[in-house]
Amino acid sequence: MKKFLSADYWDIRCCLASLGAILVSGLMLLPGTAMAACLLGLVGQPAPFQLASARPLPLTVAAVPKGQVSISYIGHSSFIIETPGGATAITDFNGLHSPNFIPDIVTMNNSHESHYTPSPDRRIKTILHGWSIETGRMARHDVRHKDLRVFNIPTNLGEYGDPKGNGNSIFVFEISNLCIAHVGHLHHVLSKEQLKQLGRIDILFVPIDGGMTIQHEQALAVIEQVSPRMVIPMHFGFIGAAERFFDMARKLYPIKAETGATILVSRRTLPKHTETRFLQGG
Question: Which residue among 119, 173, 183, 264 sits deepest, i.e. has the most Cβ atoms within 10 Å of its Cβ?
């Protein structure tokens, strides 16, 4: 399989242009622990512990109706996720695509310059890295804040198909009986074990750059593996990438373009079958 050695360079340019297996929530997971909380029906259960709030959140976050989740696209691979309970999270937080408030949780799926920042705002309560810092170890997170739970599934990066690598993570966000997965800078289709840990996924954020991460055929294969009800494309700021993906995807799934950068989703409003929703903005 072709490797794209200039991915970092183009990522930067694009960004600047773009039951015994479950531990107590809020604690680190032990190595090898399978999560699959969505599959086991734990979404929406009360949290035994909550993260302490360092300071009140600025009153710039819109109220989210009960039973729904707000998803806003702010650029490249970054989305704002807001819950009815007032929890906020940002995916692939890079310090460039940022809202006008301090989020509770930020995830950084991998250490590419356009997908993380080494100097996040100190007021952010929880910062989750998706790559392994220590050789031979896996990044493991399972935290809960208010009505939001976030955990990760390690994946490889750099050596395609290497099951021992952990340069990236899929982060799963559980809220309002919905399971939302952000695959980050994924470079391969998923293994059976990764799918098992992932569990049921309702909404899937997928890169459609066509080569900086996974090729379009692989992206469609991952969608088929996960079988979400809704697919939200990301990482598409490359000439012709989105058009080529949609030409292929529309043969398999309906594609709808939203009028703005934000959507509200609930279990009731999910499409019955897999559907692609393209958010504007970013």
Answer: 183
